[in-house]
């Protein structure tokens, strides 16, 4: 029977041997050498992806800041027109997500910079539009161009790290989005001082300047984006051998994996992927609400536009600290379900505060902190937990893309349930968010019970098989008799 510790981590006990390019290292590895390797990878892989995601999040969320700086009036965004401009971004995300993720896996990580250059152009376009219909088109194209960035970065991080190191690194990566949310209001308030310059309103300059920054960053970071592990040049031969041996022993990234449309559809038949979509959707809807409507909600509590921008900062910073601390604890204890449920409980508490709508605005402001903390802990767990239970390279890539891109369908909901006739209570919006978060908690519970049951079944079946299995069985991935699902 496979070693129980490795079973818990969802690892194959019989993996492909390390190729000649990576030596024949086998676990257990030298602990000191692993620590030195991890420090080097941390400094080389995470910072550049973090910077790109910082810019990515600012670009997707700046529409909320532009709205309260005059865009609503100038483009005549009456009724649900603003909401349409918000959700159409996610339509592009939904349509292009999986195809672009396959492009990323096939042609390599530097494709992320090409995508970024393209969405930078669309952001500038948002600042030059004359009618609201043109804004809708720009936002749709922006969503399509951005669709594979987070899922691609998530896959690339997982390609360099083992399963027990993956969550913390991904959460550190996600703090870029949280920090971007924190500084977005402040940056927008500074850019807004250019109101009237060259005949452009403040909201137009928000889009134009941030779009130009995006294009510059995409070009500047192109040489620094790391390739897939098997092609990396920043490690010595010995370090590269150790890194590849660790990755292959962990059963994650597969460099020579092939993909076809039929295989992609087969991967998507795995019920755990769709349960992961539900988990992600349940918290992403609330995270999108926070990003797109928090300035409006805070303004409705009596703050000026500038005060509303500034008051978003502490909410995001507290959410960042909360997510990092508890993600690290989750990874240390090797428990994902419990900490997803912790995030859900905190999120639900904040939503209940907003639904009850206490008279004291400070209490409602406190609810925002709970929402941010809950979202930013549960959201990365919903992605990483399911992805580490997918063994093969393309299956993991397809799973991450499906969870992130179908999960963002929550934005379709959030952008249509925050009805401005209900401002500042937004009772429908917060009530819907609470319902969806409960759906996510149910899906997480389903995965936990399902994976636990399957592990027990595999233990019984494995006892009836030979100790040494046929080498060809390594192609089975997470269907291998020695594979155990992480809980």
- Shape type: globular
Unreliable residue stretches:
1-23
Helical amount among residues, as a percent range? over 70%
The oligomeric status of these chains comes to single chain
- What is the C-alpha radius of gyration, as a whole number of Å? 23 Å
The secondary-structure class comes to mainly alpha
Order of helices and strands: HHHHHHHHHHHHHHHHH
**Biggest sheet details:** none
CATH topology: Growth Hormone, Chain: A
Tally of distinct domains: 1
Name of the CATH superfamily: MFS general substrate transporter like domains
Number of helices: 17
Mean pLDDT: 84
| CATH hierarchy, class | Mainly Alpha
User: What's the count of strands?
Assistant: 0
Explain this structure to me?
The protein is an all-alpha fold and 487 residues long. It has one domain (4-19, 27-466, 475-479): MFS general substrate transporter like domains (Growth Hormone, Chain: A, Up-down Bundle). Helices cover 73% and strands 0% of the residues. The chain has helices at residues 4-8, 31-74, 81-107, 111-128, 132-146, 149-160, 163-191, 202-220, 237-250, 261-267, 271-300, 305-333, 337-356, 361-387, 393-407, 410-417, 427-462. α2 packs antiparallel against α8 (202-220), α11 packs parallel to α16 and α12 crosses α14. It is globular and about 70 Å long. The two termini are 19 Å apart. Mean pLDDT is 84; it is low at 1-23.
């Amino acid at each position: 029977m496979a070693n129980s510790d490795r079973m818990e981590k969802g690892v194959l006990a019989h993996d492909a041997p390390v190729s000649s390019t990576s030596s024949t290292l086998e676990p257990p590895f030298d602990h000191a050498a692993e620590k030195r390797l991890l420090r080097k990878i941390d400094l080389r892989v995470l910072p550049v992806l973090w910077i790109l995601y910082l810019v990515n999040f600012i670009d997707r969320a700046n529409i909320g800041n532009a709205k309260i700086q005059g865009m609503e009036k100038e483009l005549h965004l009456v009724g649900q027109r603003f909401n349409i401009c918000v959700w159409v971004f996610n339509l592009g995300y939904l349509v292009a997500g999986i195809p672009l993720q396959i492009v990323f896996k096939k042609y390599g990580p530097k494709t992320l910079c090409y995508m970024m250059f393209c969405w930078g152009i669309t952001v500038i376009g948002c600042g030059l539009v004359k009618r609201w219909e043109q804004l809708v088109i720009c936002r749709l194209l922006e969503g399509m161009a951005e669709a594979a960035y987070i899922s691609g970065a998530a896959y690339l991080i997982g390609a360099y790290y083992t399963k027990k190191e993956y969550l913390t690194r991904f959460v550190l990566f996600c703090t870029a989005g949280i920090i971007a949310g924190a500084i977005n209001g402040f940056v927008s308030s500074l850019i807004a001082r250019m109101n009237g310059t060259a005949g452009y309103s403040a909201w137009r300059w928000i889009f134009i300047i941030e779009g130009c920054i995006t294009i510059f960053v995409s070009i500047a970071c192109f040489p620094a984006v790391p390739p897939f592990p098997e092609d990396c040049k920043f490690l010595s031969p010995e370090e590269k051998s150790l890194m590849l041996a660790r990755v292959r022993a962990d059963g994650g990234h597969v460099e020579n994996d092939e993909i076809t449309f039929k295989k992609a559809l087969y991967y998507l038949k795995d019920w755990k992927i769709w349960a992961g979509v539900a988990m992600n959707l349940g918290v992403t809807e609330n995270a999108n609400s926070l990003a797109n409507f928090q300035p409006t909600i805070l303004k409705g509590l009596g703050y000026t536009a500038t005060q509303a921008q500034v008051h978003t900062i502490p909410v995001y910073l507290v959410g960042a600290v909360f997510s990092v601390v508890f993600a690290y604890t989750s990874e240390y204890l090797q428990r994902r379900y419990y900490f997803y449920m912790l995030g859900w409980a905190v999120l639900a508490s904040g939503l209940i505060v907003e639904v009850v709508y206490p008279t004291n605005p400070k209490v409602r402001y406190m609810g925002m902190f709970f929402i941010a903390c809950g979202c930013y802990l549960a959201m990365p767990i919903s992605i990483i937990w399911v992805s580490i239970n997918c063994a093969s390279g393309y299956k993991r890539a397809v799973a991450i893309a499906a969870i992130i891109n179908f999960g963002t369908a929550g934005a379709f909901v959030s952008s249509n349930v925050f009805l401005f006739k209900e401002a500042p209570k937004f009772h429908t919006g917060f009530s819907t968010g609470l319902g969806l978060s409960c759906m996510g908690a149910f899906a997480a519970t389903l995965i936990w019970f399902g994976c636990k049951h399957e592990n027990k079944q595999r233990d019984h079946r494995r006892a009836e098989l030979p100790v040494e299995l046929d080498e060809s069985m390594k192609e089975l991935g997470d269907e291998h008799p020695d594979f155990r699902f992480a809980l």
